[in-house]
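BUG: 3D viewer hangs when loading the predicted structure for this chain

Environment: internal workstation, default settings.
Expected: structure renders.
Actual: progress bar stalls at 90%.

Input used:
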Amino acid sequence: MLELLVLHPVIDNSWINFDVPSLIQNFWGATFDGLTFGAIYGLIAVGYTLVYGVLNLINFAHSEVFIVGAYGVVITLTSLGFGPSIPNLSLAAIIGDILLALLVGMVASAVTAFLLERIAYRPLRRRNAPRLAFLITAIGASFAIQSLIFVIRGANAEPAVTMFKPIPVFDVFGTIINSQSIIIVVAAVILMIVTDMFIRRTRTGRGIRAVAQDPDTATLMGVNKERIIVITFVLGGILAGAAALFYVMLVPSGVIYTGGFVLGIKAFAAAVLGGIGNVRGALLGGLLLGLIGNYGQILLGDSQWTDVIAFVVLVLVLLVKPTGILGTSLGRSRA
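Structure tokens produced before the viewer hung:
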């Protein structure tokens, strides 16, 4: 006699713990931490947004544009004597060194973005390659840059760098907000405002919007499309280089050659959440993604849930509004 054994698996839900009191208790700390990380996501997301707005291309190698800038920042600061401890310099000298590192990071990322456009994407455009070829090239370029960094710098993370000790600035319901978070958020917002004004108010910005809306008509009107495309890549690289400095400030444990991948995916998600092709949406999406991830991490009591919660919310938002929260394309934005 054969007996059919049906197994009913017992689902253990003990690993899911909605810790609402902990979220309430740590709400303001999670909020400011989320805004700080979200500001970095937003700056990186602008690169995805600009390139997509002009070329309808998802530049998956933009995460490596960011990580090259991060290497530039760390190497510069290390060469200037920064490390786990802060060098014995005056405040003015420290600020000057940090600004130099910022400049190096911006230049390194901008040059990487420029070379990426010239070597990887321009030949495809000249051959009228299909969109799939651009996507595959972007992924291949991402791995190629990672491998090149691995060959040059090795697999180990760069040394930790501490630029200055965070100074408590003010108290929000028992949560101490330090100077580091304020500097990152304020600087990121200023950079985004300047970028938005550049695109909306300058002649080059009008050229970017024109090419994004109708490249053929823009060319007939005297806009140099190739020049605009290069400027778009370089502008995204400059902002990624700034984000690299803020990332090193926030996470001083070192930079590794694969470190841009996850951060790049989050920045891309931020661009989509805010409305890819919309510069303001990139910052909004980054800030929201940072907040949602932090709230979810505390609510569920495990940092491994941070990315899960953020991407689930992204999917839900896109189900309701597929174009993202703001949704206006770069070509349709107005001054």
